[in-house]
Amino acid sequence: MGMTIAEKILARKSGQKKVGPGDLVTVEVDTVVMIDNSFIPSRWRNIQKVRDPARIVVVFDHRVPASTEDAAAAHRTGRQFVEKFGIKRFHDVGYDQGISHQLVADHGYALPGTVLVCSDSHTCSGGVFNCIARGVGEPDVVYSAIKAETWFRVGETVRYELAGKLSLAVTTKDAFLQIAGQHGDHATQNIEWGGSGVAGLSIAARKTLTTMSAELSAEFSTFEPDPTMLDWVRARNPAPFDPVYPDGDAKYAAVRKMTSRRLSRWWRFRARS
After folding, report:
1. Which of 34, 47, 90, 187 could form a disulfide with 217 if both were Cys (CB 3.0 to 4.6 A apart)?
2. Beta strand pairing status for 115-118 and 132-135?
3. What is the pLDDT of residue 45?
4. Which of 86, 83, 116, 114 is nearest to 101 (CA)?
């Protein structure tokens, strides 16, 4: 039996040939995004060393501009951390500042086939780039920064097959709301997006689906790679990467087909109600 995208990345990053639902795996972390909340005095624990500063991104986004003494102290601590370890990927207050998830996309920080963690719940946004990205607890972020590893329990995967092309009146947010309304939460599960309909979606539209997967309580939410996504990443990050495709005989908890015709009917119903 083959593996899904999430299973293949978890297997690769844990040094195993195969993993499956229920397995506990310790995996290499390729990218650790530390936001200003990570440096709040009540949460911060002084870090003596990190395995690889090149794996760390520091972004001030939740408390910009600093509106309290704690926020200002967090920024100060964050800058000291950046200087201490020579962190190159630093987005301080100013022209280079932005929401961490958007900066991950704009700068190609989430490489296909990799693992990315951050303490923000919507970190799953990065899964649009064929990586497994997830919001984790603050201690896990610190541990990942120090050791460049963390652990996960492998969950089952639900695959959504997108087909057709959305009309101008229907957005991927509409698609997400239909999925949420019809299928409910996806707690302990991964979501995998694929199908011929992906080609008609912009990166921003796809990112809506992965970002909002946090509202479904999904573990990971990732897209099958295609030329549009691969070209996007290559244009923003020269680092090599190895995209991951699901095996043809991968086992899914469910495979659900979402068509543009189905979504259009749903939108017309809502417009009348």
Report:
1. 187
2. parallel
3. 87
4. 116
- Residue 18 C-alpha from the chain's centroid: 22
CB atoms within 10 A of CB 195: 17
Q: Which helix (H) or strand (E) holds 138?
A: helix 138-147
CA distance 152 to 42: 26
CA distances from 21 to 8, 88, 116 (A): 12, 37, 20
pLDDT of residue 187: 95
**Helix axes of 227-236 and 203-212: crossing angle, nearest 10 degrees:** 90
Residues 227/228/234/237 CA torsion (nearest 10 deg): -140
Alpha helices in the chain (DSSP H): 5-14, 69-85, 100-106, 138-147, 172-183, 203-212, 227-236, 260-272
One-letter amino acid of 128: V
Above 60 in pLDDT, residue 270? Answer: no
Token reading at 208: 């809506």
For position 5, what pLDDT does the model report? 98
Give pTM, 2 decimals: 0.92
Residue 268, pLDDT > 70, answer no
Predicted confidence (pLDDT) per residue in 100-138, tens digit:
999 999 999 999 999 999 999 999 999 999 999 999 999
Checking phi first, is residue 9 left (phi over 0); if not, alpha (psi -120 to 50) or beta? alpha
Per-residue pLDDT for 272 more than 60? Answer: no
Cβ within 8 Å of residue 11, ≥6 positions away: 3, 17, 18, 19, 25
Radius of gyration of the chain (CA): 19
Residue 152, strand partner residues: 25
Task: Match 């939740």 to its residue by tokens.
Answer: 62
